[in-house]
Amino acid sequence: MNKIPLLTTGANGLVGSHFIQTYAPKYEIDSLELSHPTNPVDITDESAVMNSFATSAADTVIHLAAFTDVTKAWEQRDNKEGVAYQVNVVGTKNIIKACEQFNKYLIYISTAYVFDGKKTELYTETDTPHPIEWYGQTKFEAEQLIAQSEINWTILRIDQPFRSDAFPKLDLAHRLFNGLRDNNLYPMFIDHYFGPTFIDDFTQVLNFFVEQKTTGLFHATSGEQWTDYEFAQALKEIFQLPGEVKSGKLADYLKTLNRPYQKNTALSTAKLTKILPFKQKNIREAIKLIKF
């Protein structure tokens, strides 16, 4: 079977690398990466992006590349020459222009950090974004550029992604596992809420959108709401780890932090669930699949 050509950015990251591993037999991946060994592409360079799109037979682009270090992004706040803004906004603007010129469908991976975290319930797609830090602001600006464009697009928001297999840059679950195993886990917030994203399922979500080209804005997490304490406790119980899960409070941590911090980033996936042809695993089921 001939492989389907597919353009990607951020293919070396936590999410992108898992997608490529899973669907290598199906897709011929053309990856726009600054770290590419033979053909490096800087997405902040418009001409480089245009040249790459011009030679690609793919009709779909998965745009995962992003500057995701929230603390370092905050240190660059309001600096449009900083790497966070350049990658997240300017890079996305260049991808949009290339999609317009070469008639390609764009799947953009965004974040729950576009919200301010003040809502206690799950955020839905109809809730108005209000980012309170620079990372969320740059991702929301990118969302707006996409929504205002003339291309066919899908925006998928995720939160705190983790995968079943280990990755060089530890995800939330593997980081907490190590802390519990070594009995040096820092206190876990009991008053901070998030919506974990199981990457193994999310790669299936990406494949669905590549196949169906369903457009629009969707939340693509587990659709659940967890505290840091609850998540760590679930890891401890499921894997019978020796370490202690100590409780802590976000309110106390904020006194030592020099940047804003959302209290709740959990997302509702009711809209996505209605169209998916498969059921995503709940978080406890996902945790049981993790390999350490």
Key descriptive features of the protein:
single chain, 292 residues, alpha/beta, Rossmann fold, six-stranded parallel sheet, 12 strands, globular
Side-by-side strand order of the widest sheet:
2-1-3-4-5-10
The overall pLDDT average reads 96
CATH class: Alpha Beta
Order of helices and strands: EHEHEHHEHEEHEEEHEEHEHHH
CATH architecture designation = 3-Layer(aba) Sandwich
Low-confidence stretches: none
**How would a crystallographer describe the biggest sheet?**
6 strands, parallel
Query: How many DSSP E strands?
Result: 12
CATH superfamily: NAD(P)-binding Rossmann-like Domain
Structural class: alpha/beta
In the CATH hierarchy, the third-tier topology is known as Rossmann fold
> What is the terminal separation in angstroms?
34 Å
- In terms of DSSP E residues, the strand content is 15-25%
The total count of helices amounts to 11
Number of domains: 1
Oligomer: single chain
Notes on the protein architecture:
The structure is a single chain. By secondary structure, the protein is α/β, with parallel strands linked by helices. The chain has a single domain, classed as NAD(P)-binding Rossmann-like Domain (Rossmann fold, 3-Layer(aba) Sandwich), CATH 3.40.50. It has 11 helices and 12 strands. Strands 2-1-3-4-5-10 form a 6-stranded parallel β-sheet, sandwiched between helices. Helix 5 (134-147) links the parallel strand 4 and strand 5 (153-158). Helix 1 packs across helix 7, helix 4 runs parallel beside helix 5 (134-147) and helix 6 packs across helix 8 (228-239). The longest helix is centred in the N-terminal third of the chain and has 20 residues, at 83-102. It is globular and about 55 Å long. It starts with a strand and ends with a helix.
